[in-house]
Amino acid sequence: MVINKIKILRAERNWTQAVLAKKVGISRQAVISIEKYKYAPSLELAFKIAETFEVPIDDVFVHEKGDPKELQKEMQKKRRLCRIQKRGNISARIGKKH
Q1: How far is the C-alpha of 55 from the C-alpha of 77, rounded, in Å?
Q2: Fewest CB atoms within 10 Å of the CB: 2, 7, 17, 76?
Q3: CA end-to-end span of the chain, whole Å?
Q4: Contact 33, 39 (CB under 8 A)
Q5: Which portions of the chain are predicted below pLDDT 50?
Q6: Which residues contact 30 (CB under 8 A, 6 or more apart)?
Q7: In the prediction, which pLDDT does 76 show?
Q8: pTM summary value
Q9: CA dist 19 to 2, 14, 47, 68, 70, Å?
Q10: Which residues pair with 62 in a beta bridge?
Q11: CA–CA separation, 44 vs 57, rounded Å?
C-alpha cells in the first residue's frame, strides 16, 4: 500500500486543502480523496504534488509493506493524533486571547 503524507505536509505549511489544490491545479475534492485513500493520483500528479511541497516524491508517498487494513488503522490513529494536537494548539491560542 502506498501511504501519503499530504495532510502532514499541509499542516506543516498551514495550507488548507483548497490552497494545495490551487497550487497543484486540481480540485479540493481531489485532495480530499487522495488524503482519504479513495483516489490514487497518477504518477505525474504525484510528482507535481511533491514539487509543490518542494520535497522528493518519497517524502510524500511511501510504499509500506504489510496488511493494508492494519496500515489504514495506523494512519487513522495518526490522523486522530494530528486532530487532537491541532485542537490543543487552537485551545492554547484562544486561552492566550483572554
Answers
A1: 24
A2: 76
A3: 46
A4: yes
A5: 98
A6: 21, 39
A7: 75
A8: 0.69
A9: 23, 9, 17, 29, 31
A10: 3
A11: 11
Residue with cell 491541532: 86
For residue 86, give the C-alpha cell: 491541532
Count how many residues are written for the chain.
98
Instruction: Give residue 90's Cα distance to chain centre.
Output: 19
Instruction: Of 21, 16, 66, 51, give the one whose Cα is nearest residue 39.
Output: 21
The C-alpha cell at 85 is: 494536537
User: Per the structure block, which three cell numbers stand in for 28?
Assistant: 479540493
CA 56 to chain centre: 15
SS (H, E, C) the chain: CEEECHHHHHHHHCCCHHHHHHHHCCCHHHHHHHHCCCCCCCHHHHHHHHHHHCCCHHHHEEECCCCHHHHHHHHHHHHHHHHHHHHHHHHHHHHHHC
